[in-house]
């Protein structure tokens, strides 16, 4: 990571431990330019560091100080505040997860290991504020497509698959992540023989009838030639969202065969966790469908617009910049420029730092010939959030169109300072400097 003028960025290269290779970060395997404006996002920090800080409102990668306390997952990430434990010299125990209500116990793991096809943070909430001992469903709703089998190929969606398993349905709340996984260790350091024995022991703890007549018979009779239960009942497939990663099918099927995880499918979205009384409201469901509508799924976009228009009638909707920004984007995709502009304006009224709304409204203003208004919007968006390189490029074009040659070159210099591999910025700067592109007021 590195810091530049209060903004924090990640080096876009990852070490993939299972394959023992260095490669580009997820989503950048096909990048043609080095994405040096990859922001250090609280959404990433909260699952990969201890003591992740909340970002400042101006930009998602701007922090008042160090963005986290320590790298990796420490005790407090799962067991909560350790001050009393430390001050008492260890006499005061930290939070014991097995003493929590099941949904709060499970939420410690699910806060990072529940992904869904779409995740929507509740109005006024931030996932970085989640603390062990709380329910993750108080912070966000998670959605999958109805009828999805397994994890859908997602790297961190084992919980959705486990909910479909006969083991989970039969065991109920007794079965949780730590029933099989030791959070204080890792099977990566086990030998293959140790790993097989560990997980077979977990399976037999339930299936061998311990303490009952006939105990041990299952272990003696069930495939002594193959002690690895997972090889038959928990097939592995390549992840479809993170390179060099595999997904273990937590449906725990009776006989493995065919595809172990289903690909993403279109259709109705349902909330994961709804059985716990967390049925999604119109706002959250609408924002979930909006994620698919933004990818070009017209039916999803139509459902999103209908749900979000209805959610606008709720008393708190005027303060909900995300609702208005997403509704504006969907209307813009549908060609409703006037409706989109109104929604973007409402989003900025709720949150002046919404760079998505500012940038998109600026494009609409420029398209209508309102270049001065477009310049103001883009200047604010790019000044506060330099990750928005596209906003910077558009600002330079508008400034050039208004005859502000030096301002345009200054904006491009700022783009290059944060994104030095940007070919577009270099080409436009060269065109303006050489006179190939004349900056004249239109």
Structure description:
By secondary structure, the chain is mainly alpha-helical. Among the domains are: 2-72, no CATH class; 281-351, Serine Threonine Protein Phosphatase 5, Tetratricopeptide repeat (Alpha Horseshoe); 352-442, Serine Threonine Protein Phosphatase 5, Tetratricopeptide repeat (Alpha Horseshoe). Helices cover 42% and strands 9% of the residues. The chain contains 18 helices and eleven strands. The strands form five sheets. It has a three-stranded antiparallel beta sheet, covered by helices on one side. The longest helix has 16 residues, at 192-207.
Mean model confidence by pLDDT? 88
Q: Report the portion of residues in β strands.
A: 5-15%
Quaternary assembly: single chain
The succession of helices and strands, N to C, reads EEEEHEEHHHEEHHHHHEEEHHHHHHHHH
Which architecture name of the domain at 352-442 does CATH use? Alpha Horseshoe
Give the overall shape, derived from the CA principal axes.
elongated
Query: What Rg is obtained from the alpha carbons, in whole angstroms?
Result: 25 Å
Task: Identify the CATH homologous superfamily of the domain at 352-442.
Answer: Tetratricopeptide repeat domain
Name the CATH class of the domain at 352-442.
Mainly Alpha
Tally of individual helices: 18
> Which sheet architecture does the biggest sheet show?
3 strands, antiparallel
Determine the CATH topology of the domain at 352-442: Serine Threonine Protein Phosphatase 5, Tetratricopeptide repeat
